[in-house]
Specification:
3 helices, 578 residues, 34 strands
C-alpha cells in the first residue's frame, strides 16, 4: 500500500489562513483542517488514482440506461472529490475530481455512485427507483464535508439521440441563511468536447441546469425533524435533455451532487431510466401522436399529453408547432393554454402554409410542449423533427415512379436479342429493337412491341456459366390505343428447334429464365411523339450450357383493347461457349 503524501511544513498555518478568510463559518477549524488534509492527500494521489477526464471509451449513448441490472462501468464514468474552498465557500472544480465509481451505504463518505434496487429512501421515504423500475443509482450520501460527486456519459450525438429523457429524485438539506449558490444542489451539466457548457441543453424549468435546496420552491416537499436542519426533497420526475444543436459532435452529460458551499450540509440524488420516456411523470408528459396524425395532404398533426399534477394542483401545457422547409422556419403555430384533456391536433393545409415551396414535395415539423403549474414553468419537452408529404401519393404515382426508374435503367442496356417469328422459326431473325413510328391503329390486329435488352457493354457475352439480368420492354406504338393490364403469362427457353434444353445430372435445366412468369406491366398508355414503354426484369441463368443458339419465348402476352388479344415474342439467345 502506498504511504500517504507528506504534508508541507506550513500546511496547518496556510489552512488556518484560508479558514479565517471564509465568511459565515459553519465548521470548527479542526474539522476544516481534517478536510483540507484529506483533500491534499487525495489530489496528491493522482499519479496512482488519476483525475476524472470525460472520454467515450466503450460508452454508448443509451447503454445500461435502465440501470435495472446495476451500474456498468463500461457505460458510465464517475468522479468524486471535494469543492474548492473560496472566501464565500466551495465550488466544484471538475478537473480536480478523482476518477472512479464508488458505492456504499448512504451514511458512508465513500458512497459516491451507488446502485440501488426498488425500495424506500431511508431519509424521506420516497421510492428509491422510478415507477416500474427495478434499479436506479444514488449519487451522493448523507455525510457533509464539502463533498461532491458525479456520474457521466460521453458520446457522439446522432439524430436518434437529439433528445434524451431521464428520471430523477432529489434529497437536500436546506440550511437557513445560505444564499442559493451555497446550498446543496443537484446539477445536470452538458458540455462539449472542449468542456464548455452547451447553452440551453438542459433546464429544470427554473432557467438553470441546477436544482438547489430551497424551502420556498413549490415543487419541493419539506421534512422537519426537531433539532435538525429542514430537508427538502423532490419525488421522482422526468426531464429531457436537448442535444439537437450537437448532432455529430461529442457531448458529456454529468449528473452532479454537491454539499453546501460551507461544508456542513449534504445532498444526494437518484437517477433512473436514462433514454427512457416520461410516461406517468407527475411533472407532465408530451409526445407526438403518430397514429392519430395525417402524414400527407390536408390533414392534422396530433400530440398526446398528460398535465402536471403537484400537491393537488393541475398544471397547464402550451404546444408550439414549428414548420420547416429546407432548414428554414416557415411558420409557427401555438395551441391554446391546455388545462384539461389528453390530446390536441393542429389542422394542416400544406398549400396554405406561408412561404412553402410545393414543388419540394414535403416539409418538416417539430414541436415543443411547455409545462407549468400556475406561473411557475416546469420545463419543455420536445419532439421531432418529422416529415410531412405535401400531397398523398396514389398507387398510380408509385407505379409511374417505378416505371421511370426501370425505363432509365433498361435504356442503358446496349445489346438486343434478335427477334424470331415464333411460328415460323426459319425466317431470318430481326434486329430486335422497338424503334417504330407512332401511327393510328388499323384494326383488327393490334399488338405491343416487345424487346429484350441485356449487357452493359458491347463486349459482353452470354457464357455457358453465367447470370445475366435481361430487361423486357413492352412498348405501345399506337397513339389511340391503351394496352390495359398487359401481362406475359409464361416465359420459357428451348433450343432453336423448340426442344427442351439439356439437363444437368441433378435434373435441372442447363439454361433457365427466372421468373418463368407471369410478368405484369399494368396499363401501357398511348404513345405521343415516340413509343410508350414499360420495362420489367428477368434473369437468364446458365450452368454448364452448350454453346449454341436458344429460343426465348414469351407465351400468353395478354392485354385488353376492348377485347383480349394474345401474341408471342421469341428471341434468339446466343450463349457463348466458355
Amino acid at each position: 500500500m502506498a504511504s500517504k503524501p507528506q504534508l508541507p511544513d506550513d500546511f496547518e498555518r496556510t489552512t488556518r489562513k484560508q479558514f479565517e478568510s471564509i465568511e459565515n463559518k459553519e465548521l470548527p477549524f479542526e474539522r476544516f483542517l481534517q478536510h483540507a488534509t484529506e483533500e491534499f492527500q487525495r489530489t496528491a494521489q493522482f499519479v496512482v488514482s488519476p483525475p476524472y477526464v470525460p472520454a467515450i471509451g466503450t460508452i454508448t449513448p443509451c447503454g445500461n440506461g435502465s440501470l435495472d441490472t446495476g451500474l456498468d462501468p463500461n457505460e458510465w464514468q464517475g468522479g468524486w472529490g471535494t469543492q474548492t474552498i473560496g472566501i464565500l465557500g466551495g465550488v466544484v472544480t471538475f478537473n480536480t475530481l478523482t476518477a472512479g465509481i464508488l458505492s456504499g451505504p448512504i451514511n458512508s463518505p465513500a458512497a459516491h455512485q451507488t446502485p440501488v434496487t426498488a425500495g424506500v429512501d431511508p431519509v424521506v421515504g420516497i421510492p428509491t427507483t422510478a415507477q416500474g423500475s427495478t434499479g436506479a443509482v444514488r449519487i451522493g450520501n448523507t455525510v457533509a464535508n464539502f463533498g461532491c460527486e458525479l456520474l457521466s456519459k460521453t458520446f457522439i450525438v446522432t439524430p436518434a439521440q437529439r433528445t434524451i429523457t431521464f428520471w430523477y429524485a432529489v434529497v437536500l438539506q436546506n440550511p437557513a441563511g445560505h444564499p442559493t449558490n451555497l446550498q446543496p444542489y443537484f446539477q445536470v451539466r452538458v458540455t462539449n468536447a472542449a468542456r464548455t457548457v452547451v447553452p440551453a441543453a438542459f433546464d429544470f424549468g427554473n432557467g438553470s441546469d441546477t436544482l438547489s435546496a430551497d424551502v420556498n420552491n413549490p415543487f419541493f416537499q419539506t421534512l422537519l425533524k426537531p433539532g435538525e436542519e429542514p430537508i427538502v426533497y423532490k419525488d421522482w420526475s422526468c426531464a429531457q435533455i436537448d442535444l439537437s444543436t450537437m448532432i455529430g459532435q461529442q457531448v458529456t452529460i454529468e449528473f452532479v451532487t454537491a454539499d453546501c458551499g460551507r461544508g456542513a450540509h449534504w445532498g444526494y440524488a437518484y437517477v433512473d431510466n436514462f433514454c427512457g420516456n416520461c410516461k406517468g411523470s407527475p411533472t407532465g408528459n408530451f409526445t407526438y401522436d403518430c397514429d392519430g396524425s395525417s402524414h400527407c395532404g390536408p390533414g392534422r398533426i396530433c400530440f398526446n399529453y398528460s398535465l402536471p399534477t403537484i400537491g393537488g394542483n393541475t398544471g397547464t401545457l402550451t404546444i408550439t408547432l414549428d414548420i420547416y422547409q429546407s432548414g428554414a422556419l416557415l411558420t409557427q403555430l401555438t395551441s391554446p393554454v391546455l388545462t384539461s384533456g389528453n390530446s390536441f391536433c393542429f389542422n394542416i393545409t400544406p398549400a396554405s402554409i406561408p412561404g412553402i415551396n410545393l414543388s419540394l414535395g414535403s416539409f418538416d415539423f417539430a414541436a415543443s410542449g411547455a409545462l407549468a403549474i400556475g406561473t411557475t414553468p416546469l420545463g419543455t419537452i420536445k419532439t421531432g423533427p418529422n416529415d410531412y408529404q405535401i400531397a398523398c401519393r396514389t398507387c398510380a404515382d408509385i407505379e409511374r415512379e417505378q416505371n421511370a426508374v426501370l425505363a432509365k435503367k433498361c435504356a442503358a442496356k446496349v445489346n438486343l436479342l434478335p427477334r424470331l417469328h415464333c411460328d415460323c422459326p426459319d425466317r431470318e431473325p430481326e434486329k430486335g429493337d422497338c424503334r417504330c413510328d407512332c401511327v393510328a391503329a388499323d384494326f383488327p390486329r393490334i399488338e405491343p412491341c416487345i424487346s429484350v435488352s441485356w449487357g452493359d457493354s458491347k463486349c459482353d457475352c452470354l457464357e455457358s456459366d453465367d447470370v445475366e439480368v435481361l430487361c423486357v420492354t413492352v412498348c405501345n406504338c399506337y397513339s389511340n390505343v391503351t394496352f390495359r393490364d398487359l401481362t406475359i403469362g409464361q416465359i420459357h427457353i428451348t433450343d432453336a428447334d423448340g426442344n427442351p434444353v439439356p439437363t444437368l445430372p441433378d435434373g435441372t435445366p442447363s439454361v433457365q429464365v427466372i421468373p418463368s412468369g407471369p410478368l405484369c406491366f399494368g396499363d401501357i398508355p398511348p404513345c405521343t411523339r415516340r413509343a410508350s414503354c414499360v420495362s420489367r426484369e428477368l434473369v437468364l441463368y446458365t450452368r454448364g450450357a452448350v454453346g449454341k443458339d436458344y429460343r426465348l419465348s414469351f407465351e400468353g402476352v395478354c392485354f385488353e383493347v376492348c377485347h383480349q388479344y394474345q401474341t408471342k415474342g421469341c428471341f434468339v439467345v446466343k450463349v457463348c461457349q466458355d
